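worker-3 :: picked Protease I
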Amino acid sequence: MRLSNKKVIALVDEEFEDLELHYPILRLQEEGAKVDLVGQEAEKTYMGKYGVPARTTHAYSDIDPSAYDAVLVPGGWAPDKLRRYPEVLDIVRHMDEHKKPIGQICHAGWVLISANILKGVKVTSTPGIKDDMTNAGAEWFDDAVVVDGHIISSRRPPDLPPYVKAFADVLADQ
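worker-3 :: tokens ->
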């Protein structure tokens, strides 16, 4: 399996978009990656927008991002909460500084905006935050998936198959 030696952080908080969290985790696990679900608290169950639970394995403050190969940020309303945690922004900045894959879908772009890492980066997102993305200095495209180096972005749940494939491809090449 091509991702058997890869470790991925999947960030979570309340009201994540259920499919945008679980689908990437399952696909990456199918390819052999170890995915840790990381939230403000370890061993806590967070609820998705549509009621699908997700139980964390670690807290943001308990992990060392240098021990991981990539990070996934789901959409939904969770990104508006995630971007308020300095530890989350530190994780995202670490991944950016070390050119490790950062996956973001839908409203997850808010986290990358707050981490201040989008200047000059080609991205997509839900059209609802297009202005936020461009005001942060990103070049926005209305495409299912946009890959700009180590940053992989996507619009919404119907785009999950090409998004997760692109993320896995970038991760495999690291």
